[in-house]
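Changelog note: in this version the structure field was regenerated for every chain. One regenerated record is shown below for reference.
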Amino acid sequence: MNRGRLSTKHLLGIKDISAEDIRLIFETAEQFKEVINRPIKKVPSLRDVTIANLFFENSTRTKLSFELAEKRLSADIINFSSSSSSVKKGETLLDTVNNILSMKVDMIVMRHPAPGAHAFLANHIDAQIVNAGDGTHEHPTQALLDAFSMREKVGQLKGKKICIFGDVLHSRVALSNIFCLLKLGAKVRVCGPPTLIPKNIESLGIEKSYNVQESLQWCDIANILRIQLERQEINYIPSLREYSLYYGINKQMLDQLDKEIVIMHPGPINRGVEISSDVADSEHSIILQQVENGVAIRMAVLFLLANQRGDKDNLH
């Protein structure tokens, strides 16, 4: 097992880690991917570690992926949902977490609607924190699994052209993807309606476009984001039908390209809105590989963070 160490105690965001950290996570994930494809899929790597999953926002895929990663590593798990908790009665975030920590929890995986909630906690508690999504800010493990899946499909990402399509304004996935891909040397563009592209996003060192067909022709990989209506307090688009008409990606558009490109989507998919079923299910799509890689990446992150607490080098 690679004995490298991450440069950080927590995973709060891609912005806070180095390209070397990302490569170490990828190398570790490759080894864990071999583990989860064996007949016996569990390893004792985190058998003395207790992890609390704190989800203050609804989540299905990310929560299941983290839980499966934790179980594959033999960790002890506490699951917490704010919908059935004292948070509803007015308890503060810090009170909630301190109560959980009093149960001797080593690591916290948290999703929270407030940007910066994880950084706030990191300054107030001793447990290690993994950001499973904070508001519209970052979603680091999604970006890591996306970049890992891209690298698996096309090789090294340096110089590759990746376009992120759709609701960039409300997406924590987009920001983490941009930070991650730039650190790996890729060229990045965002494309969508002007109302869903943040102003001055080019200051991050990327391109922006409002032309879907031209951007499909430009890129090697298209990462297509979901329209997040639940985060939109006003109408940023006239209707889903109109969005689909002007910005949805379908098979006919791919057939017009003079090359083949890779199709990705972090899920859940709004079929027939941002992506048609014949694109999502096509041979160009690596959407299901992203799901599989999510478990391996999250196993790698948890394992490497736990390594900061002492020598737990028991991958095999």
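Spot check on this record: The chain has a mean pLDDT of 91. Residues 140-287 form a domain with the Rossmann fold fold (CATH 3.40.50.1370).
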